[in-house]
Every structure is written in structure tokens, then in C-alpha cells.
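Reminder: ligand-aware prediction takes two inputs, not one.
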Amino acid sequence: MLSFTKSLSRLFFKRCDRKPQKPYRYSVEILADIDIDWLVHCGCKGIILDLDNTIVSEDDRYLSPGAEEWISKAKFAGLVFFILSNGKRQHRVLYWSKRLGIPALSPAKKPFPKALRHAISYMRSYPSQVFVIGDSFHTDVMGAKITGCHCIQVATLPHPPRWWEIIAGRYLQKPYPQQREIWNFQE
Ligand SMILES: [Mg+2]
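Here is what comes back for the chain with magnesium ion:
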């Protein structure tokens, strides 16, 4: 009986430990600016990563400087990744999924929570252990908010603007800093 009570209380306190704290909301210029040690220190276990204009520009012209190396380092630190892209060109998402060695899902229809929840359960994590990293407020930041994940918004890589970006882009995305280095993408 005593051991049963002990195991029950252990289970209860374990659950309490995992109660999500207030999610973090941060913004940085590029992915490589994020301190991996800080992520680990915050209890981060998994990262849901956006692809378009976060890692590579929509028109495949630019690459976020140091992004691939940063991902390798984060993997080495024990973080698990999942790519969620709203892009409909699946061959492109598949290419990046293979290149980075990260499972991917597209079109993810962010900020709707279905794909985000799928990624969270794939990573066997709680939302409070997951960071969503992306460039758009209405998809990545909102998706994180809806699912209770932490979020880091990066500046959007330069790309030809869509009609709605011409109207509302400045409210939803952070422009890429002019003085900042940018890499050309060569397939
Ligand atoms: Mg994006």
C-alpha cells in the first residue's frame, strides 16, 4: 500500500513539474543568432522549424547564414527537429527535409494546430518543451500561441512579396536587416 501511495505521489509531482510555464516570445535576426545553450537551459527538447524565408527564401535565392551548421550543433546538443511548412511545393520541402535530415510536413496549414500537435507528439515532448521558430507572425507565432509552445520569430529573408505582404507584411514579418550578411543559395 505504501509503495502504491509513493508511486502515485511520484507520478503526481512529475506531472506538476511538467506544467507549462508562461511561453517565451522572442525575436532575433537570423536562426544562427539563437543561443543553443540557452535553449537547452530553458528545457527545450524539440524545435518546430519553418522553412520558407526562415532557412531559404521562397524563390530559392537566399539562404539564412549559418543555418545548417546551427541545426547540426543543435542536434548534437540533443534537440529534436521537425519542419512544418505552409508551402505547397512538396518536392522542395522533401529536398530540404533530406538535406537537413529532419522530418517534414507540408502544407502544414499553420496556425491551425493539427500539424503542430502532430510534430509535438512526434518529438515526444510537451508544448512547454517545444520552440516554434519562423518568420511570420500569423502562422508561426500564432501557431505557437495556440498550441502553448514557445516561439522565436526571425527576420524574413528577402523574397518577392505576395499581394497581402505588400499590404500587411510590415505587421506580420520583420524585414531582413540591410547591414546583415546574407548567403546566396546554390543547389
Ligand atoms: Mg515562413
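The radius of gyration is 18 Å. The pocket of magnesium ion is lined by residues 50, 52-54, 134-136 (CB under 6 Å). We will return to this case in the review session.
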